[in-house]
Structure formats: C-alpha cells, structure tokens
C-alpha cells in the first residue's frame, strides 16, 4: 500500500474511536435506559416490572446497537498499538499490553449488552423473572469486575506516555494522569457483589457514573491526541533495532549462500 492509503486507514481508525464514544453513550446509556441503571437490590419480578417491561422495545434496540458499536473500541486500540509499536525499539511489551487490554475490553462491551438485550426480549413471557435477574446481574458483573484488563491498557499507555523520549510526542505528558487515574478508579469494582445499594452498587453513583466519566475522559484524551498526531506528522516508518544491522545481515546471508554452493 502507498503512504496515503496507510495514512487514510489510520485516520479512519482514529475517528472510529470518537464514533465509539458517541454511539455507545447514546445506545448503552440513553436508549438502554441506564439513567440510572436498574437497582441491584430489586427482585427478579421488580426488575421486570420496573425496568424491562416499561421500556422493553427501547432497551432491546439500545442494547442490540451497543453490542454492535462496542467493536469500535477495538479499532482505536489497534491504532494506538501501531503508533506505540513504531516507537518501541525491539521490546513491544507495552504496545501488546495495550492491544490485549483494549481488545478484551471491546469484547466485554459487546457481551454484556447481549445479555441485557435478551433479558428485555423475554420479559413478560413465561421465562422466570429470577433468570432474567440472573442474566442482568451477570452482565453487570462481567462488564465491571473484569476491569483489570482495561486497567492494564490504561497503565500501558500511561507508562509509554512518560517513557517516550521522541522529539514529536504522540501523547502529551499530562495525558498519563488520565491514564493512571482512570485505571485506578476501576479498583472499587472489586467490591461490587457486596453492595446492593449506594454508590458502590453496579448502578451506583461512583461504580457506574464516576468510573464511566473518567474512563470516557481517558479514552477521548488519547483518541484526540492520536488524531492530532496523524494530522500533523502522518505515519512513521517502523523503527526496529535490527534495522541498523541490515547491511551486515545481508552480507552474512551472502556468505552462507556461497559456502553452501
């Protein structure tokens, strides 16, 4: 591929990150009727009567779309990996940690809405409300309690941001504050099963709204930084340790070929 095509692909991937923030907020939060979410303390029947049945079609549409748009989180994560990869010389631990953390996070953003879409679709049928309660709770636990994979992504980006000694920085130094702080705020999700009400419940003021706000802010900061870098500097050629030894490597191959002949 030529340089312009590669740059165009990178820019599209970067803007897909912005698209994720907008579409996921609209589908998961607004259409999904998560302002606020259902109360963890509700029984199965209360959950069906107070949450799913009054907004059944809206929730089905919102969560079905959220399950689709969740993959956009992976698009930007992959782009960030390629940008980091070209700066890491020989050791790509941070970029791989960021990639794996971002892709697994994208999976949870898809998987949990699927459970909530199913819960809405079977509400008011012969399905036991307690099963709907189980699926709903499982969805919240899965999207929240496996936060460590997202924290890994945040910390990998934060460390890279501070360690990058290049003249043209991809991410500003202060962006690391958002990365580290966002990663740390998820730690309260560990106690999720112990709180059915209050700020630490899965629909609580902190464990839902607080963590989400900082996470979206972290994502936007790195997303916008990537767009600005691509617009200003384009794409960089990969820099590998082995690149400086190419002449020697070529001579070695030639010697081996002659010896074999």
TrEMBL record:
The chain crosses the membrane at residues 12-32, 59-85, 97-118, 138-162, 174-195, 201-222. The keyword Transmembrane applies. Keywords: Membrane, Transmembrane, Transmembrane helix. This is DUF4386 domain-containing protein. It comes from Propionicimonas paludicola.
């Amino acid at each position: 591929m030529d340089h312009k095509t590669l740059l165009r692909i990178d820019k599209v991937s970067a803007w897909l990150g912005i698209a994720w923030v907008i579409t996921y907020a609209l589908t998961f939060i607004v259409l999904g009727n998560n302002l606020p979410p259902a109360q963890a303390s509700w029984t199965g029947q209360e959950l069906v009567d107070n949450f799913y049945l009054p907004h059944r079609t809206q929730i089905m549409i919102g969560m079905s779309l959220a399950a689709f748009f969740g993959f956009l989180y992976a698009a930007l994560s992959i782009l960030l990996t390629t940008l980091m990869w070209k700066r890491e010389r020989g050791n790509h631990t941070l970029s791989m940690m960021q990639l794996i953390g971002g892709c697994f996070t994208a999976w949870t953003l898809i998987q949990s809405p699927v459970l909530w879409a199913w819960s809405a679709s079977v509400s008011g049928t012969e399905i036991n409300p307690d099963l709907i309660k189980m699926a709903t709770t499982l969805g919240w636990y899965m999207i929240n309690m496996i936060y460590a994979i997202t924290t890994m992504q945040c910390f990998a980006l934060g460390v890279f941001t501070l360690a990058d000694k290049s003249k043209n920085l991809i991410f500003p130094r202060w962006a690391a504050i958002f990365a580290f702080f966002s990663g740390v705020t998820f730690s309260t999700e560990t106690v999720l099963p112990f709180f059915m009400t209050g700020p630490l419940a899965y629909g609580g003021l902190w464990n839902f709204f607080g963590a989400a706000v900082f996470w979206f802010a972290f994502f936007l900061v790195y997303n916008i930084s990537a767009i600005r870098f691509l617009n200003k500097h384009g794409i960089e050629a990969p820099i590998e340790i082995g690149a400086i030894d190419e002449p020697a490597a070529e001579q070695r191959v030639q010697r081996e070929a002659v010896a074999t002949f």
